[in-house]
Design brief:
The complex is a heterodimer of chains A (379) and B (359).
Chain A: H1 2-6, H2 10-33, H3 57-88, H4 95-114, H5 128-154, H6 161-182, E1 208-210, E2 217-219, H7 220-242, H8 244-254, H9 256-261, H10 266-290, H11 298-313, H12 318-338, H13 355-369
Antiparallel strand pairs in A: 1-2
Helix pairs in contact in A: 3-7, 3-10, 3-11, 3-12, 4-5, 4-6, 4-10, 4-11, 5-10, 7-8, 8-10, 11-12, 12-13
Chain B: H1 8-25, H2 27-30, H3 33-60, H4 67-82, H5 100-122, H6 127-147, H7 175-196, H8 200-210, H9 212-217, H10 222-248, H11 258-271, H12 277-292, H13 314-328, H14 332-358
Helix pairs in contact in B: 3-7, 3-10, 3-11, 3-12, 4-5, 4-6, 4-10, 5-10, 7-10, 8-10, 11-12, 11-14
The chains are: A mainly alpha (379), B mainly alpha (359).
Chain lengths: 379, 359
């Protein structure tokens, strides 16, 4: 016993206590302390949009579902980013641009398939294929674009990771500007002169599901996003852990030089990984366009999300991407639902959102204890 | 005091530097008002910001994409503290109406502190991880100022440049005053960086850039050195941020956005990430391209865009230029000069050797 006590690492103990304390305070706040908004509009430090989990279990469950479905969506995008990074050490700064371009291409395809007049298509005109077809075309085009970028620019600059990051930044600048110049081609909602384009989900998804828990009815499309995220995860797992290509990819992640030294053509593996990773960005973009629409400027947002997920979860790890997506989605959703909102909705302080700070706190906490992320290995 | 080395290359570099300095000192007399107040003043400001990025990259081996955000934080501190509300006054931000000198000092102190905190968080991440992490800091700062409406929100805090300290005076009516201030601060920052990298701190910083593991095993506190270097770079960026709001008069989340971050990175890369002088060279080149190339009629240009088949705006051109520079000369414009100087030396030496053997 005394022997074990002597080995207590005080610094680690303090770190763990700090994390446990912060998480505990946040849970206590969400479960008991938070108050629903009052009728008069004025609030105090306990006033939130949702009220505490004890008072309003329905809203709490809906918020949790929001977080989990957002995690599925994040995973689709970030797993592609992580795959490319883990294998090739390429930080694909154009990942957000690929997300956006994939969404726009799918939008154009759906317009060609179904729209009588360009613009918004009502859900009852869309069957499953009218949604899947654009998804496939969008993913395929971005996969080819990613392949071309990898072969044209990244293949012969291998090993110079900063130069490669700068190259992909240059490509993202060009792609972002070309999107503004060319998309959307079929008329879209012109909100403030923007280029918002939105894909319509298949008609049968446009309803809410009664979950039989606390009277919660939840959007079927969001559950569908979760299902997509989980199937991408399962497919990637099966690919990486149950096929020969996956085995080579995992070997390449661990030791690139050794893998090519035993006679495996690692260049082909790189090309495949970039192909798949870019396609996943486009898949995320199609989901994004279906879920509220896409517009120029979101490329930066989704690059940020991908970065946060892989920084938190650890680079190049499938499990890390899943854990990072879930943690980030929980922090993101719960902090915007349960942070005090004392501002008067009509006043100048309206809609102040501090939730972004919590994203930073999450990163800082994870990196303080694990500089390589939760499931990452030291570089 | 170490004696200055006089080789043909340093002679050329130093005389070029003197000529540039002379031209800059006489700037308002030689050039048009637009050129001095828009092109040159802006180049000095973004040169200072890029110098903080290049300092970290050249001497610390860290490419930071948070410098734009740090610059913006300084700008936001000034904007929130100095502007006055009331009838005919400003409406955005905290509108505290404090003393501008105090605001100036606070902006520098707060930004440096933020830099030290960010530096501490990022100090154990290396290379590409550091770049990703600082980019994340930058984008978070952008959303922070966009979402926290108390501190300004999405629309800009305006007319900040009307509230300058008494010892600075009216810079709106006398833009040449701001020109000389930015020139002076640029020289100060340049001299400070050149001094800092010769101190024991600067030398150990360069040591851990090249051999972090070896320095750590010699007992150097590697994360602490990185944190302090990042704090110093934040200090430099804060100077650029204050000058920026004095020059532009306003600050909005867009000044911290991904676009602005990438612009600063492009400036640093065009100039060259290896030498501090590249900062101002890159800023000047970028701003000249940005201001004048827009107006050039390209031979095939149509109303659809700069290039007819491709379309797109000026950003496509800047993106392509950036791409070509990274592909052709990773050292930027300074890199081209260094290569030319090396080539010239080789030619010079081989000729001298030929003469010596001939004689």
């Amino acid at each position: 016993m005394s022997d074990r006590l002597r080995h207590v690492d005080v610094q680690r103990l303090v770190q763990r206590l700090v994390v446990a304390g912060l998480v505990g305070v946040a849970l206590l706040y969400i479960v008991f302390i938070a108050n629903p908004p009052s009728e008069s509009g004025a609030g105090n430090w306990r006033t939130t949009n949702s009220g505490s989990a004890v008072d309003n279990p329905g809203a709490f469950i809906a918020n949790l579902l929001d977080a989990v479905t957002l995690a599925g969506w994040l995973f689709i995008v970030a797993s592609g980013f992580s795959l490319i990074f883990g294998l090739m050490r390429v930080v694909n700064m154009a990942h957000g641009s690929f997300y956006l371009l994939g969404g726009y291409i799918a939008y154009e395809v759906q317009q060609r398939l179904t729209a009588e007049t360009p613009g918004f298509i009502s859900a009852d005109l869309i069957n499953t294929w009218d949604w899947v077809m654009p998804l496939v075309v969008g993913m395929a085009s971005i996969a080819v674009l990613g392949f071309v970028v990898q072969q044209g620019f990244l293949r012969w600059t291998q090993g110079q990771d900063l130069r490669q990051a700068l190259l992909t930044i240059a490509i993202s600048v060009i792609v972002a500007d070309q999107i503004i110049a060319h998309f959307p081609r079929s008329g879209a909602f012109q909100v403030g002169g923007g280029n918002l384009a939105s894909i319509t989900w298949p008609g049968w998804t446009a309803r809410r599901v009664d979950l039989q828990i606390a009277g919660v009815e939840y959007s079927l499309t969001r559950l569908l996003i979760l299902a997509l995220g989980v199937s991408v995860g399962v497919a990637l797992w099966a690919w990486l852990y149950r096929t020969r290509t996956g085995m080579v990819i995992r070997a390449g992640v661990d030791d690139r030089q050794m893998t090519s030294a035993i006679g495996i053509n690692i260049q082909i593996t790189f090309a495949i990984a970039f192909f798949v990773g870019s396609a996943l960005a486009a898949a995320g973009g199609v989901v994004g366009a279906s879920q509220g629409g896409i517009t120029s400027g979101q490329d930066g947002l989704w690059l940020l999300y991908s970065l946060v997920v892989v920084i938190v979860g650890g680079m190049g790890s499938l499990l890390g991407a899943a854990a990072g997506s879930l943690l980030f989605a929980l922090v993101f959703t719960l902090s915007s639902a349960y942070l005090p909102s004392t501002g008067n909705p009509a006043g100048i302080e309206c809609c102040t959102q501090y939730s972004i700070i919590f994203t930073f706190v999450l990163i800082a906490l994870v990196l303080a204890f694990r500089p390589q992320g939760l499931f990452g290995r030291a570089a | 005091m170490r004696a200055l080395a006089w080789t043909p290359r340093t002679i050329v570099e130093r005389s070029l530097g003197l000529v540039v300095l002379l031209l800059a000192a006489l700037g308002p007399l030689l050039f048009s008002g637009y050129f001095t107040t828009t092109i040159l003043t802006q180049s000095f400001i973004f040169g200072i910001a890029a110098a903080s990025l290049i300092f970290l990259s050249a001497y610390g081996g860290m490419i930071s994409l948070a410098q734009t955000a740090l610059m913006g934080i300084a700008g936001y501190v000034v904007g929130n503290l100095v502007t006055k509300g009331g009838a005919g006054g400003e409406t955005k931000g905290l509108i505290l109406g404090w003393d501008p000198t105090l605001a100036l000092v606070l902006a520098i102190v707060i930004t440096t502190l933020v830099g030290l905190i960010l530096g501490a968080v990022a100090s154990r991440s290396l290379g590409i991880y550091f770049l990703m992490l600082t980019l994340t800091f930058g984008v978070i700062a952008n959303y922070f100022f966009g979402q926290v409406t108390k501190l300004g929100g999405f629309s800009p805090i305006a007319s900040i440049n009307q509230y300058t300290p008494g010892w600075v005076g009216d810079i709106v009516g006398h833009p040449d005053k701001l020109y000389y201030i930015t020139l002076g601060v640029s020289l100060f920052v340049y001299a400070l960086i050149r001094y800092l990298v010769r101190t024991p701190f600067g030398i150990s910083l360069q040591g851990l850039r090249d051999e972090p593991v070896r320095l750590a095993s010699l007992g150097y506190n590697v994360p602490l050195h990185r944190t302090l270097a990042f704090g110093f770079a934040a200090f430099v960026a804060s100077l650029a941020g204050v000058l920026f709001v004095w020059w532009d008069g306003q600050i909005s989340p867009q000044n911290l956005g991904l676009g602005a971050t990438i612009d600063l990175l492009i400036i640093a890369v065009i100039g060259g990430l290896g030498r501090v002088e590249g900062a101002w060279l890159g800023a000047f080149a970028f701003i000249v391209i940005n201001n004048y190339v827009r107006d050039i009629q390209f031979p095939f240009a149509s109303e659809k865009g700069v290039l007819p088949w491709i379309g797109g705006s000026f950003n496509t051109v800047i993106g392509v230029v950036f791409l070509i520079i990274i592909l052709v000369s990773p050292g930027g414009l300074i890199g081209i000069w260094e290569r030319a100087a090396q080539g010239a030396r080789r030619v010079f030496e081989s000729r001298r050797m030929a003469e010596a053997s001939g004689a």
